[in-house]
């Protein structure tokens, strides 16, 4: 039991809210209903069984009393016909008289009294005197069948001087119904063992006893003193002359051959059994069970329907919440109209969620504006750290002094510096072309070759189809500055290659210097500006990284690959565009 409960709990823990709602609601509705049904079923079964058994036994008792009354009538009439009665005495006189006239008078009187008894006892049918030895009869009240039979009749009960038979087919002509009969010995002085009185119950008397008690769809058996079946309503299941076996049953009731049976035994020893087919006995109970099944199905359907409506009431708002949260996660902060669910609590929460979404959108937009302004401000700050007009005017003066004094090296240095400063510090915006950027680094390298006390070679290769493509200004000089600063020595060289591959501008700067470690690479990409002012103009690789992020977002990348003692390669991958996104 605990294993099943654990299995149900595991299922509920893994089930969706829809399944949980339906399970809980159906359980809360159906479990009390099932308990009520089981309790009422037990109660109804007890009541129906008690009422039905009481009804059956009442009808059975009425049938027994009817049979007893019939037998009592037969006994009473037979007593009148016997010697102790008036008719019996006249029969005795008739049989002992030799006078013709007296015999005629007695015969008339006997017939008259028999007719009177028949008239006053409508429940009595055939009456006659019967001689066992001769097989003849006389003084019969009605016409007797030619093939009448008395000695072979089914014995119901036998007492001193009288035997009861039946039910059996009447010996009266034109009557093929079942009757009960009595055969009483008549004590005649001249013929002590031969004369009997035979009396039958009235026309259809025996069937009417049972037909009056058919309200409970019962069938009847009549058993004699030896439990032999003397009469059967269902001879196909309980044949006449068979013996009724009540083995396996207790008391006066039981189940046999698909019938519930109830027995009532008379004081004379014979008994009446009421038979009720099992399906008939359970018919009322089955009818109630069927009604309960229909009611259960109705309850189940209503419960599931209500659970479904309840789920819809929860599911639709959850879908709305899910949609709104997904849109926030996908940074879709566009203001949209919230669909009203017409459930005040959920409508209020959705409205609050929409307000939060709008606030997030405003915050994101504000942060983006601030970050862009900050990036532009930092670039402008870098570009204007030195007054470009003052520097360039001063350098022009130095250039002309060098020319006038014949200092060609100084003249070359000043010209290169002037061009470099004009490119880097001039008010030309943040976008340049690859051609202009390459020219700028050529001037920068000229200055650095004069500055450093060792010789190095620079090899530059640029594909013609990328020369006019736009790129951010001043992103190659920090890369070359990094190559010069980190370990380049005599006989060193720097190789710059610019090409186009799969819609991207690929810029690689390789040097055969001492190389740098992974920790130094991370520091180059993330260190602050103050720490970078050790070389060149103090801008560094961090500037390059922030510049391409500002211009291209996630479409561009900066990678540094280096091996100690082997050299360093810097890769810049920029999307090929006619116009930069933030230009």
TrEMBL record:
One of its GO terms (molecular function) is ATP binding. Residues 346-380 form a coiled coil. Keywords: ATP-binding, Coiled coil, Kinase, Membrane, Nucleotide-binding, Transferase, Transmembrane, Transmembrane helix, Two-component regulatory system. It catalyses: ATP + protein L-histidine = ADP + protein N-phospho-L-histidine. PROSITE patterns: HIS_KIN. The chain crosses the membrane at residues 21-41, 288-311. Residues 475-578 form the Histidine kinase domain. InterPro entries: Bact_2-comp_sensor_kinase, HATPase_C_sf, HATPase_dom, His_kinase_dom, Sig_transdc_His_kin-like_C, Sig_transdc_His_kin_internal. The keyword Lipid metabolism does not apply. GO terms for cellular component: membrane. It holds the Pfam family HATPase_c. Its EC number is 2.7.13.3. SMART domains: HATPase_c (SM00387). This is histidine kinase.
